[in-house]
Structure formats: structure tokens, C-alpha cells
TrEMBL record:
Assigned keywords, A-Z: GTP-binding, Nucleotide-binding
Record flagged with keyword Nucleotide-binding: yes
InterPro entries xrefs: CHP02058 (IPR011719), Tubulin/FtsZ-like_C (IPR037103)
Key word Nucleotide-binding present: yes
UniProt protein name: Lin0512 family protein
A Pfam cross-reference name: Lin0512_fam
Taxonomic source organism: Paenibacillus solisilvae
Cross-referenced Gene3D superfamilies: Tubulin/FtsZ, C-terminal domain
Length: 119
């Protein structure tokens, strides 16, 4: 990334179902849903949001191999998106197993996201 403009942070959890992808999507949504970047287009090449570079860093506590990166990328409406997965996040207990929510156990998966935006 030649020029970094924004770093947005988010956290997402899957309370039931133990899906790292669901927790990661929620972390990315949490990072981007409270931001507006109205001046960004004026500094992007050709004034196009498609020329924006978006680097997503995900701190994932477990089951990295099950992360659906395409599903995470689909949450971001514009830009050339890259994903970097690192160790982190958290696994904790929900205290209950709910079979109707596809629980395999009583664990909550928590993922942290850092979204870097620039060109």
C-alpha cells in the first residue's frame, strides 16, 4: 500500500455454532459500519473506489483452515481486498450448548479485525 489513510478496528463473535468465518465477518462489519470516508474518492487514482486498497488483518484463535476468505471479502463493497490471518482472538465458554443453533460444544469464537484503507 503506497498511502495509508484509515485503520479501522473491529471485533466479532460467533456465540453458537463455532464458525470462525461468521466471527470474522462480524469483526469486519463491526470495523466498517461506523465509518464514512467522503473525501477518499478525491485522492484515489482515477477517483474510483475500485482503486482503493483494503488490507484486512484477522486475529483468529483457532480453526484458521476453515476461514472462508471469499465470504469475508464479500462484506467489503469496494476496493482490492487482501486478507492476512494471524494468531489471536479468543475462545471462551458460552456456558450452554444449543443443538438447535448447530453448537458442537459450548465455545464462543472471537475474532479481531484491523482494516487498513489506502491506495
Amino acid at each position: 500500500m503506497e498511502q495509508l489513510f484509515f485503520v479501522q478496528l473491529g471485533m466479532g463473535a460467533d456465540l453458537h455454532g463455532q464458525s470462525i468465518t461468521k466471527a470474522a465477518i462480524r469483526a469486519v462489519q463491526n470495523a466498517i459500519h461506523h465509518n464514512s470516508m467522503p473525501g477518499l474518492r478525491s485522492v484515489l487514482p482515477e477517483g474510483s473506489l475500485h482503486n482503493m486498497k483494503v488490507n484486512v488483518k484477522l486475529a483468529v484463535p483457532c480453526e484458521r483452515e476453515t476461514l472462508d476468505e471469499a465470504a469475508v471479502k464479500a462484506v467489503l463493497p469496494y476496493g482490492q481486498v487482501t486478507i492476512e490471518v494471524i494468531d489471536g482472538g479468543m475462545v471462551t465458554t458460552s456456558g450452554v450448548i444449543l443443538p438447535d443453533k448447530q453448537d458442537k460444544n459450548d465455545l464462543i469464537y472471537v475474532v479481531n479485525a484491523s482494516i487498513e484503507v489506502g491506495f
